[in-house]
Design a protein that fits this description.
Layout (H helix, E strand, L loop, with lengths): L23 H17 L4 H7 L5 H11 L16 H14 L1 H21 L2 H12 L5 E4 L15 E5 L2 E12 L6 E8 L2 E8 L5 E2 L14 E11 L4 E6 L2 H35 L1 E2 L2 E2 L4 H29 L5 H26 L10 H13 L4 H13 L6
Parallel strand pairs: 1-4
Antiparallel strand pairs: 2-3, 3-7, 4-5, 5-8, 6-7, 9-10
Length: 396
Amino acid sequence: MGVRRGAASFDPGDPLGIDELLSDEELAVRQTVRQWSAERVLPHVADWYERGELPVVRELTRELGALGALGMSLEGYGCAGAGAVQYGLACLELEAADSGIRSLVSVQGSLAMYAIHRFGSEEQKRHWLPRMAAGELIGCFGLTEPDHGSDPAGMRTHAKRDGSDWVLTGRKMWITNGSVAGVAVVWAQTDDGIRGFVVPTDAPGFSAPEIRHKWSLRASITSELVLDEVRLPADAVLPEATGLRGPLSCLSHARYGIVWGAMGAARACFEAALDYAKTREQFGKPIGGFQLTQAKLADMALELHKGILLAHHLGRRLDAGRLRPEQVSFGKLNNVREAIDICRTARTILGANGISLEYPVMRHATNLESVLTYEGTAEMHQLVLGKALTGIDAFR
């Protein structure tokens, strides 16, 4: 079978023609977020990363709210009500700039806002969500603890009744946005099982010391949450969430964004390596003219665009209401793992320049080490798929 006459020329940026699967509205969302990232993040992110801070987090959050990027797949309460593929494309473009920026948006929208939207009372939704959607109020999500990451059922944070009030005590660890959040969704053990609580961060007994000395996600705010007998009214509990179903469904929603986002980091590294290979000369010609380099570029392009196709397929399933958690695990496991490999291969093409912050490669590579771990390690997603394939639970 021959190539169809009049077929479009080969596009190195879209070798499979995936853009043809996207609607005009989806392409417009992608372009808007890509342009914002290019103007507001890329000129500064290397400096933020080197300094280990995100000094304009509140300003960026308000701008992201104005773009409709916060809780963008949620309906009502000031949220954009965008489709799953639109949200995924936004995550891809944000993480192509930096994983920390995508994490800011993911934690705000897919964890904190999603928890309130899915499990909160109408009063809670009206009180919190409009300000969070506008970026006027930053949220965080407290599930992971110092001694309980992959096994959240063992959490020690607890909430006890005191009259009509709740009193929360415990610690949470590795919490994105914690030190700048105005509201925290905190999960705790109660006599009725695990429950979620909406906690104003100015409540007495609540503190969020920032975690320093990170070598990953440096352009992101990561904190510990300390709850020292934080007293909350009865209506602070999320009424529709009991047990692990609540936090795990939030994580599944956030993991979907990671499936797309990881490919953004991979794309940035691939593009940097491709450009470098066409201009860097050794032995009298560009290194892109050598077979070993071309083999690397071909393999990177294969995994990058296969990963984008996978993300697109999962997005269409989510839009159709047919996406299962096991399929999200499939996407997160594959795309983050392949993104890390693409970044590492890109580093070899750039040689010594690959470790310089003048290029994005090492920054993305180190960031992805966090993405590999948070919201389910690779090993946990392997076990999720193993259980789905065999019907046998190997977690314990």
